[in-house]
Amino acid sequence: MDIPPVSGPAHHDQDSCLFEPAPAQPELPGLAWCDLDDRDLLRVEGSEAETFLQGQLTQDMTRLREARMLLAAHCSPKGRATALFRVWRLDDSFLLDLPAGMGAAARRRLAMYVLRAKATVHDARPDWETTGVAGSAAAALLQAGGLAVPREAGALTHSAAVVCICLGPSRWLVHSARGEDGGLRARLAACSDPDRSGWLLACLRDGDPEVLPQTIDAFVPQMLNLDTLDGISFKKGCYTGQEIVARTHFLGRVKRRMRRFGYRGAQPPAPGSQVALCGPVAFPASGATDETAGAHALVVWSLATHEGGGEALAVASVAVDA
User: Fold this and answer.
1) Does domain 32-205 have CATH number 3.30.1360.120?
2) DSSP of 64-90, one letter per residue?
């Protein structure tokens, strides 16, 4: 069954409020790892796979001829993101990583545009295992297992069976052919128990945007900071939704942006819900001025970090976009 887009007014979460969070509280663990096999993974292959994706995603796919991973959004004709991928090339095919529950809908949307292109879109999850590893001890543990560990965000190394992708200063994704992780998870388990919350907190602190079933067609890519995260090419040719995305960029009209908040509430505010701001906030990444209290923000995703509260990434209005 396809996943419907968000329609009508966003749900107002009246039990939570967002505020400027204390810097890095709580602290991140020295090692946080977990399996991410619940995330969806698509493979696009065929002699015209690159050309096909070039006409569909916000990213310049020719940049993936080098060994790297890039963010890319698939948009509706209205220029709103219907999916957000981490994309990399493996030989003559492309792998697209996205959140759990998003793969079937994204695959159907991409398949709608294949037409006569010599490209096919498959579910690649049965062929791969994915492990997230974060923290100050993560690189040394990966290296001890014989992996070549990239250090620059977006860089990757790969062998026939394992792809290691750097997401940030202390975060890595390791994709391995199913059953061929070289004992990675066993080595990690010998050091610490799986810590999915710690992994997610590291992702949230680094400002990782996501498009989830509740927020399909809710955000222009710039609202998710894809322009500052190297997830949009403004030099390549046309793609679905490109006119709106380009107009937003060249007219300088990004009036809402994603940023990190703290929240107070018994439950994490749901993606796609509107939550009140209960104090002034700033947008340092874009140089925007403070937002006044009393407004609302649209939640991208959130995480409980303690009883009665946690952190969230949410899109709020900004007074000036520099």
Assistant:
1) yes
2) GGSSBEEEEEEE-TTS-EEEEEEEEEE
